[in-house]
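User: My notes are a mess, but here's the protein and calcium ion's SMILES. Can you give me a structure?
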Amino acid sequence: MLVKIIRTLVAVLMVISPALPQKLSLPAIPSGQELDLESRFELVWEDEFEGDTLDTTKWFYPWWETERKGGYWHEDMVSVKDGNLVITTAYFDEPLENYYYDTWHDTIDFNEYKAGWYTGCIETRNKFEQCYGYFECRCILPKSTGMWSAFWMMNDGVSNVDGSGKDGTEVDVFESMYYKDVWWGAGDAVISGIHYDGYGEGHQGDSIGKWFANNPYEEYNTYGVEWNENEYIFYINGVETGRLSTGGVSQNPEYLILSCEVAGENGVANADRHGTGKINMKPGDTAEFIVDYVKVYQYK
Ligand SMILES: [Ca+2]
Ligand SMILES: [Ca+2]
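Assistant: No problem, the inputs look usable. Here's the predicted complex:
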C-alpha cells in the first residue's frame, strides 16, 4: 500500500516537473524514449545461461580477488541452473578452499579466506569486449540489506588520470543497494552512473540518480545502456531513464561484469556502504542474484 502511495506521489511530482523527485532524493519512474532495438541494433553476443556450468569461453571468475569489501568472492558461489546464472551470498564458518593457492602463491599475494560472507563475480575481460552498442541484462536482485549487485562495464583506461573519460570509463548499467528501503517503496529503485580517472584523488564521476524498476527483488527486469560516441543512454525495461556524457564518452572497447558485494571492509561485514544498510541475514540465510541473460548489440 505504502509502495503504491509513494509511486503515485512520484508520478504526480513528475507531472509538475520531471526532475522534481530526484531533487527531493526520491527515485523517479522511467518515462523517456522507448528503445527501438529491432530496427537500430543487431545482436552480436549473448549468454542465456543454459546448461549447468558457466561458459568459460565467455566468462571467468576473478579468482585472484579473494577478499572483497565486507565479504569474499569465490567461484563456488557462482552457478548456472534453470536457464539462469545464480550468484549466491551465504555465510561459512569454515573458510572455503583457495583452489589457486598452491599454483600461484609465489606470484600473487592472496588475502586469506576466513569465516564470513561469500559471494561472487564474473567478467568477460579478454574474452569479449566491445566499443559502442547496446548492452542489456535481465535479472532478479538479491534480497538483503548490506548488499550490492551490479551489471557494469570496465576498461583498463579507467585508471588513467587525464581529465577525461574517453580513455576508459566504468559504466554502471545498474547498481542495487536500496533493499533496506523496500518497506516504504524506494527500495525498488536502482542507480546508474559512470566513473573515470581512477579511484584516487583524480576520480571523477556522474550519476543519473535513482530509478524505479518493477518489484525487482521478486521479478525479472531488464537494465540496459546504449553507448555511442556522444553519450550513454540508460534504460529500464526498454524505457529511457537518463543520459550521461560527463568527461567525454569512452572510445575504447569495454568488458562486462556481473558482481555481488557485501558492505564492510577487510572481509568483515560490519558497515553500511553508501546507503546499503548493514547485512541483515543470519548464518544459514542466502540471497541470490539471478540473471536470465546478458545480450550485447551493435548499431546496424
Ligand atoms: Ca536464460
Ligand atoms: Ca581518463
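Residues 2-16 form the longest helix (15 residues).
User: Great, I'll file this with my notes.
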